[in-house]
Amino acid sequence: MNIKELNRIYKFLTPMDRLKSVFSHFDHDDILVTSSFGTTSGILMGMVSKVAPGHPIHFIDTTFCFDKTIAYKNTLTDTLGLNITNVLPSVEDNSYSSESELWKLDVDKCCHLNKVKPFEAFKTDKKIWVSGLLMNSNPFRENLEIFEMRGPLIKMHPNIDTTAEGFSHFLVDNNIPPHPMIEDGYESVGCTHCTTKGKGREGRWAGNNKTECGLHTT
């Protein structure tokens, strides 16, 4: 079945049913699930914990995350019984980035060394990558469908058409706490050096034309 056909069929399923279908049709070892444990992470984590309890959740830890993001990851891990696999950059790349304050010199290279590059090895031998992107974040994400091809991988966004209201209802209905930085005025959270308060993703890489770290665009 091609991507166009998958999108046609899955469009009429709920996000939960989309996940159930994927986990029933693919070998679980072929499914890669990631989370940034950012402000919208609770919905995908809650759904995966119900559909495939214990399935590995890959967290790309740049070492530059906010303390409250790490605390939120730990809270969701305990609340939902998540199985976390930490994806870390090499010591050399991470030290170079920190010592040179690379995010000030070349923000794209910083993202590449600390997010994109270390993640590559984890995509090997996988067939489908499940991500928690939401449509209403920026123009790039507005154009995404439920399924996209990313190289040899099928990329799945089960919640891409979930509204802000639907997201909030899911958290409340499933007793999932929101990210603690939302009440501080951060609607999107990444690394400490490149995140400020703001609506949507306007606080990410403020002052740059950059809107994505590169994980979801390559």
Features:
218 residues; alpha/beta; Rossmann fold; 6-stranded mixed beta sheet; 9 helices; globular
Descriptive notes:
- The chain is of the alpha/beta class and 218 residues long.
- It contains nine helices and six strands, in the order ααβαβαβαααβαββα.
- The chain has a single domain (3-180), classed as HUPs (Rossmann fold, 3-Layer(aba) Sandwich), CATH 3.40.50.620.
- The protein has helices at 3-10, 15-25, 41-51, 67-80, 91-100, 102-105, 107-123, 139-142, 164-173; strands at 31-35, 56-60, 83-87, 128-130, 147-150, 153-156.
- A six-stranded mixed β-sheet has the order 3-2-1-4-6-5.
- It starts with a helix and ends in a 45-residue tail after the last helix.
- The mean pLDDT is 89.
Number of DSSP E strands: 6
Q: How many domains in all?
A: 1
CATH topology: Rossmann fold
Given the structure, what is the number of helices? 9
In the CATH hierarchy, what is the superfamily?
HUPs
Report the CATH architecture: 3-Layer(aba) Sandwich
Please tell me what the overall shape is.
globular
- Beta percentage is 5-15%
What's the main sheet like?
6 strands, mixed
Provide the gyration radius in Å: 17 Å
Q: Can you give the helix content as a percent range?
A: 40-55%
What is the terminal separation in angstroms?
Answer: 23 Å
